[in-house]
Amino acid sequence: MVFGANGHQWRREPPLTTDELAELESQLDVELPAEYRSFLLQVSRGGAGPAYGLFPAQRVDDRWRWEGDGTELTDLKTLSRPFPHTDAFNPADDLPAPPGKVDFDSEDKFNEAEDAYWRQHEAVVFSPEHSIGLLYLCHLGCAYREALVITGPARGQMWGDDTASDGGFLPLHEPDGSPTGFTRWYRGWLEQAEKQTQSR
């Protein structure tokens, strides 16, 4: 069984019409990267895809959005602002180490300091500013997600978000070291899925 297929059941949502895509981009005030635009118009708006599936673009109450576990990480209001990174980065890198019990003369003081530390950690690591310009497209499990860079110097590239495990953000690459774009990302999943089904 291909991982995640139980969730999407190999179903694909219908593609967007040109009018629907125009309305979506108008609402977001951004033109989506070419490979993803072509996919939305010619293949599907979402459904069967990597891991638990490709988050579908849906029109709800006259507003366009993506639906799925993690789509709330996409800030549609700031999607047109550039994602500034080209190299992997980890928001947790600049945080101090968690407090140790040996530094406190009571359990209560340690617990208070530890709670304060993790509140600060969460505020820094999960700040929405880190994902400006990212469109989250799928959930791989264990809160690891992958996103498409919509704006900025890495526009059109796929990135992984492993902040839930303190792994930070990292660009996806092909075996030859070149950046992974949407088409290569999706085709890579299709090729792997085909190999798995043929080997059964």
Automatic annotation (TrEMBL):
Q: Which residues form a coiled coil?
A: none
- Please name one Pfam family that this protein belongs to: SMI1_KNR4
Which residues does the UniProt record annotate as the domain Knr4/Smi1-like? 15-188
> Which top-level group of life is the source organism from?
Bacteria
Q: Which InterPro entries match?
A: Knr4/Smi1-like_dom, Knr4/Smi1-like_sf
Record-given protein name:
SMI1/KNR4 family protein
